[in-house]
Amino acid sequence: MARVFALPDLGEGLTEAEIVRVLVREGDVIREDAPLLEVETDKAQVEIPSPVAGRVEKIHVEPGQTVKVGQVLVTFADGDGARAGSGEARAPARPAAGPPVGAVAQAPRAAAGGPVPAAPATRRLARELGVDLRAVRGMGPGGRVTDADVHAAAQALRPTAESRPEAPAGRAVSRPLAPVGLEPPALPRFEQWGPIERQPLSHLRRTIAERMALSAALVPHVTHFDRADITELDAVIRRNLESARVRGITLTLTSFLLKAAALVLRAHPQFNASLDAGAGELIVKRYYHLGIAVATDRGLIVPVIRDVDRKPVLELAGELAALAQRVRDGKAALDDLRGGTFTVTNIGALGGTGAIPIINYPEVAILGVARAREEPVVRDGQIVPRLLLPLSLTFDHRIADGADGARFAADFVHRLEHPDQLLLEL
What residues does 153 pair with on adjacent strands? Predict the structure, then answer.
């Protein structure tokens, strides 16, 4: 019997992905774990391998399409069909064993032009709503069409309030953002004043927009500003650049920021938490997995470095460089992007005197860092040049007061101003 492969459960509440590239063609015979598709999730672009060896009988998706978890991506031929292909699979297929969503399952066999697999009640619903079942992609077990599939198809058939021209071939299709909070008023007709161009948001940009709106709507943000004198820290980095380079490591300020933040979070655990408003509880995490914002040509992505409190600065520097490169190359795995407890965003390389970042929900705090500048400072009655680093701690005012934020920032500044201690911390 034919075997279907559906979009697997991606974890951490991810429910959909956008198809970026299809890496196989119908009729190809592929080995188990061979690259099958590239998809972009809410967090990054990842590659999905084939769960079995065999011949690709049908590809159900195309680039630019958004698919839900459980939606069929590829159908594989049965064993005989695979052997009849133009090539040979390089590894034996796994035995079919009734897997969960995302694994290969047996699809109901239907003759060409035969009935679409659907319950009688679903067929009646389709007739009432004027939906052709043959044009509906079934999301149920084995591709069975469900009531929800019929309702979705009927919704797609309804005309919109304002008809829009179809997107040119190969161009992404526009989708509305998920509503959060107040309903926005209608936009004016901008074309009455001059030419305009509508550009569909990418899957990642749409997700960023929705998450930022969610965070801003749910969380009462408050920001505390401070500055750290990193003159000595800059000297430590410069002194150790060459020795680190010999070990294949590029020593940067960001690795010190991550280390200092993890150590300060130990002393201020309410900032390393999530708020369960429904239960009225603060979920304090006793692990320190820090996200670091990385700018890519697709948008801002926040990969996660685990157990930062237990790793020396040099190890963090090497891990950070490798992780950031994977993200920029679109090669990050889902595990690289999960489980963060606190986020650091360093915009210093891009300039600016400061920023108020939005919290990466469901975390409760985020640290912003701007460009360090040499400024005149009075020390021991003398005006001397010192390298000052602007900092901003934005946090959920429901879980901490302004004084708590000030104490966190002061401890963080103290750590940066004693860099030798950071180098010795394991």
Answer: none
